[in-house]
Write a structure and sequence with these properties.
Keywords: Cell membrane, Membrane, Transmembrane, Transmembrane helix, Transport. This protein is an all-alpha fold. About 75% of the residues lie in helices and about 0% in strands.
Amino acid sequence: MRALGRPLVYVGALVAVVLFAGPFVFMVLSSFKQPQELNGVVNGFLPQSLYTGNYENLFATGNFPLYFVNSAVVALLTTVLALVVAILAGYALARFPFTGRRLLLLAVVAMQMFPAVLMAIPLYKILRNLGMLDARSGLILVYVTFALPFCIWMMRNYFVTVPKEIEEAALIDGCGHFRALWRVLLPPALPGVTAAGAFSIILAWDEFLYANTFVNSDEKRTLSVGLDSLVGQYTTDWGQLLAGGVLMTLPVVLIFAFLQRYLTQIAGGGVKG
């Protein structure tokens, strides 16, 4: 039975790889196809030649570099702000007893239940009153709001797993709470920080609804909205759209490849509630 189970595991892993990586591989190959291949005049799974015109036209005819920079700035600042607040809040929820702590934690987790569409109108009015419409700062504020519940929950659960005796020993040796947090609690919680950061950067990188609703200026658009502008009412430049999709997906793939060894520790070590 064990001898039969190993091949089944390999087959299942192969099927999963094909299902998840297949669309990306197809997108990469298609981005190097010529217009007549993409329009169906010439059929074939593989490109006839390594045609780079789609990438050249993407950078030459549009504001793709500006969209890329906007997305990078928004995603980076969202991640940094979310992690700073989540680490401090998670530490407080894990270490400091106060009235209503469990209720506050449940409220933080419950915030994840609200769909994005439901919050669009209230957030629009808040940003309008703050004068932050059509601004990257307003978009960052909204993304931090949505990233915080998961990040706080993740950091709190990781801090709980660190024995209190280690932190108490650091405090006795003269460390303050912030220094103990930095030197004692954060190193064991690094997988949680990585997971929270990955969640935040992905949320801000590929989000479309709020980026399309709260930002109107072309020079402030993010990648998701910028690529959507390539889809016309009557015609669509599939070559540029596929090339843009590859360049938008590639940073995410590289980030997960770099953080893989930290993310796998979550599955291996588990998280205590």
